[in-house]
């Protein structure tokens, strides 16, 4: 197996540069034919011309003063504008501006035909878009490219003017609604303030009402304490022992007299009890004590009656005053609740008025901005700045077919095909000469050298015949080799 591969490697080495150069006529003819075919294609091929311009597209916007403020590069914006340029609406307007040179077939879509040849490429890290259009007529390519960009600019103006007008109308309607809402809330606020019908600010009114309620509460507490005192006096008038109450509760003279008589009565009763243990019932001193006790009891009852009458009169007046104060306190609390409700509603209305006022001011500023932008658009300004950097120049040289590169490629292709044919032919010839050697048994690798020499001599003879020259000694060399 090793001897077989060694022989094959040596046989391949026979197809060398000299063998290839021996077929120079064939290679030259094939190359010439390929170049001729390329030249023939150049005479019949349709020329394709490409019109190209670079366009600056910037999203400037329109401020409150109607002037633009350049913004930073926006890749998404440029990509969007590239799709707008390629949109069927833009292409349709361009076809209306510049109709096709030849009427399209019924089945053809002129918009699709234009889109197939149109290229819109945003340049990286710039605000520039590269627009190209290909056509077999250079004049038509330039006109079509110019019409597409004109249609794109007209589309931008129409969209901005329509959007600006609609925005101004919507914002004006919203501003009117907010103004009407503010007027309604001001009317509600006036009605709420008139509801508690007190002058001054809400905080001052609340402080005054709180002071009135505290004063009424203090008066009611004093009347209640006075009532309790008078009730104690009335209870003491009914009691045998009496209770300790302030003298200011009733007439001081009556109260002191009642206390004095009551004390004397207690002393007389104590003396009577003491005399009962030592004196008999008929004893004169005991009888005098009993008479004195009866007199003191009558006097005490008379004084008590006067005290009860005076305490009852004062108690009725105090109870009436306490009840009146309770009524006033209840009314004042109701008044405070109404005032609290009114103040809360007033505060809510004031907060809402402030919020709506801020929204109204913001809407009014937006309306003024949009009106300025609308007027700027009417004067020809636009938020999207579009400028063509290059002139619309009619291309002079086609991009296809290019004669020089095409002929070079055809020549190289012809040469490559001819070389391939030479290699295949030489390989087949070597295979036919090698077959008898491979069919014979090989005992050692040293016997391969004479056989290879015979093959080389045969190749040289074949090359001489192919070149049409007489190689002296070649036949003799072959004969010697065979011997």
TrEMBL record:
Keyword Lipid metabolism: no
MF (Gene Ontology): protein tyrosine kinase activity
Residue span(s) of domain Polysaccharide chain length determinant N-terminal: 17-94
Membrane-topology annotation of the record: Multi-pass membrane protein
Coiled coil feature spans: 286-356
Domain of life: Bacteria
Location(s) in or outside the cell: Cell membrane
Entry's Gene Ontology cellular component terms: plasma membrane
Record keywords: Cell membrane, Coiled coil, Membrane, Transmembrane, Transmembrane helix
Keyword Cell membrane: yes
Principal location listed in the UniProt entry: membrane
Matching PANTHER family: FERRIC ENTEROBACTIN TRANSPORT PROTEIN FEPE (PTHR32309:SF13), TYROSINE-PROTEIN KINASE (PTHR32309)
Record-given protein name: Chain length determinant protein
């Amino acid at each position: 197996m090793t001897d077989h591969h060694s022989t094959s490697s040596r046989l391949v080495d026979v197809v060398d540069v000299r063998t290839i150069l021996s077929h120079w006529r064939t290679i030259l003819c094939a190359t010439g034919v390929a170049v001729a075919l390329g030249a023939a294609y150049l005479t019949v091929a349709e020329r394709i011309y490409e019109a190209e311009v670079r366009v600056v597209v910037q999203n400037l916007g329109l401020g409150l003063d109607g002037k633009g403020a350049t913004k930073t590069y926006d890749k998404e914006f440029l990509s969007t504008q590239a799709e707008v340029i390629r949109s069927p609406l833009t292409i349709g307007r361009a076809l209306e501006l510049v109709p096709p040179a030849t009427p399209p077939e019924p089945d053809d879509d002129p918009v699709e035909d234009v889109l197939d040849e149109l290229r819109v490429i945003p340049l990286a890290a710039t605000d520039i878009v590269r627009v190209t259009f290909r056509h077999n007529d250079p004049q038509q390519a330039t006109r079509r490219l110019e019409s597409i960009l004109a249609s794109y600019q007209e589309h931008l103006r129409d969209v901005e003017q329509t959007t600006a007008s609609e925005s101004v109308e919507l914002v004006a309607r919203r501003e009117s609604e907010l103004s009407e809402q503010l007027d309604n809330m001001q009317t509600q606020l006036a009605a709420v303030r008139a509801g508690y019908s007190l002058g001054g600010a809400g905080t001052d009114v609340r402080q005054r009402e709180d002071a009135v309620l505290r004063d009424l509460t203090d008066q009611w507490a004093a009347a209640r304490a006075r009532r309790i005192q008078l009730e104690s006096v009335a209870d003491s008038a009914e009691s045998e022992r009496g209770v300790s109450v302030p003298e200011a509760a009733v007439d001081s003279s009556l109260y002191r007299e009642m206390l004095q008589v009551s004390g004397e009565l207690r002393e007389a009763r104590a003396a009577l009890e003491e005399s009962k243990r030592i004196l008999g019932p008929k004893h004169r001193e005991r009888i005098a004590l009993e008479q004195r006790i009866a007199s003191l009891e009558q006097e005490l009852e008379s004084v008590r009656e006067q005290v009860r009458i005076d305490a009852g009169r004062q108690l009725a007046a105090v109870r009436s005053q306490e009840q009146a104060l309770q009524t006033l306190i209840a009314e004042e609390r109701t008044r405070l609740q109404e005032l609290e409700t009114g103040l809360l509603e007033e505060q809510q209305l004031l907060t809402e008025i402030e919020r709506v006022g801020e929204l109204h001011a913001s809407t009014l500023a937006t309306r003024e901005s949009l009106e300025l932008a609308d007027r700027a658009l009417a004067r020809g300004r636009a938020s999207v700045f579009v400028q063509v950097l290059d002139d619309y120049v009619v291309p002079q040289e086609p991009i296809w077919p290019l004669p020089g590169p095409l002929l070079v490629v055809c020549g190289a292709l012809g040469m490559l095909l001819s070389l391939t044919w030479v290699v295949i032919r030489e390989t087949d010839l070597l295979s036919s000469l090698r077959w008898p050697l491979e069919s014979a048994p090989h005992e050692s690798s040293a016997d391969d050298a004479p056989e290879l020499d015979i093959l080389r001599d045969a190749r040289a003879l074949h090359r001489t015949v192919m070149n049409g020259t007489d190689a002296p000694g070649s036949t003799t060399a072959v004969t010697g080799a065979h011997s």
